[in-house]
Design goal:
The protein contains eleven helices and 14 strands. By secondary structure, the protein is an alpha/beta fold. It has a single domain, classed as Acetylglutamate kinase-like (Carbamate kinase). It has an eight-stranded mixed β-sheet with strand order 5-8-2-1-11-13-14-12, with helices on both faces. Strands 3-4 form a two-stranded antiparallel ribbon. The chain is globular.
Length: 287
């Protein structure tokens, strides 16, 4: 005998939410979505589990997700453990030959594999790589005074497209390859923007620790154009850590991505809320 379902308010609400998501599920079928997962947004193991489940769900309904991660706090912790002293210029770490080995070990090793494992535990097929694999990311020094800190000059997305065809979820560590075979550390947001542009992604989701771009009153602006971003930056309303994120958004858009969303990665199911609900989450930026 079929068990009688107790139609509580929660169950009805869940069913209604699923039904209302149908147009968005259809809208993103086959779309490429690049997600930048930052150190703060990674949070604890429970947050990682929820994030991984959301990513697997996204793929299950037809989206091709690419994860790009950072890991600054973890790099700092490992450098301290190994008693490697860091030099700073203008508040920015100089990455020397000793440091870049640790950076690659942490980003391409422990962090990357932790995310891959979380995705696989939820039934997905996560696969980890860095920008050095299959010559994915070519780069040059951002500024020689900062050592092995790079900026992307070319992204070759063929390997990512092939992974989509085979049902894999790429997880990319922000490490690039120099012209002479050198290893470079690249800002994770910058890598995510470059990959989103190269893939002509439908969405670039920048998961951070704030709820979005805010106006002079501290209120989140839900929709912005590139010209509005530039104006808010000139007025000093966009400042601090939000400047490089909005700059990344503009580069991605100018390179061919359809839209960029800056949202709070600490919020449960943030990616699903943005993609599959009418109200979305965070600030969406378009040309």
């Amino acid at each position: 005998m079929k068990k009688q379902l107790n139609l509580s308010h929660d169950w009805v609400t869940s069913a209604k939410t699923l039904s209302e998501a149908l147009p968005y599920l259809q809208r993103y079928d086959g779309a490429v979505v690049v997600i930048k997962l930052g150190g703060h947004a990674m949070g604890n193991d429970q947050n990682m589990e929820v994030f991984a489940r959301d990513i697997v769900l996204m793929q299950q309904v037809g989206i091709n997700p690419v994860i790009v991660h950072g890991g600054g706090p973890m790099i700092n912790e490992m450098l301290e453990k190994l008693d490697i002293k860091s030099k700073f210029i203008d508040g920015k770490r100089v990455t020397d030959e000793e440091s870049i080995k640790v950076v690659e070990m942490v980003l391409s090793g422990s962090i990357n594999k932790k995310i891959v494992q979380a995705i696989n535990t939820q039934g997905g097929k996560g696969i980890g790589l860095s920008g050095k694999d299959a010559n994915l990311i070519h780069c040059t020094p951002e500024d020689p005074k900062f050592g092995f800190v790079g900026k992307p000059t070319k992204v070759e997305p063929f390997v990512l497209s092939e992974m989509f065809k085979s049902g894999f979820i790429p997880v990319v560590a922000p490490i690039g390859l120099g012209e002479g075979g050198e290893t470079y550390n690249i800002n994770g947001d910058t890598v995510a923007g470059a990959i989103a542009a190269a893939l002509k992604a439908d969405r670039l989701l920048l998961l951070t620790d704030v709820s979005g771009v805010k106006n002079e009153n501290g209120e989140v602006i839900t929709e912005l154009s590139s010209s509005e971003i530039k104006a808010l930056t000139e007025k000093g309303i966009i400042q601090g850590g939000m400047i490089p994120k909005t700059a990344t958004a503009l580069v991605a858009l100018e390179g061919g991505a359809r839209a960029v969303v800056i949202l709070d990665g600490r919020a449960p199911n943030a990616c699903l809320l943005e993609l599959f609900t009418e109200h979305g989450a965070g600030s969406i930026i378009r040309l």
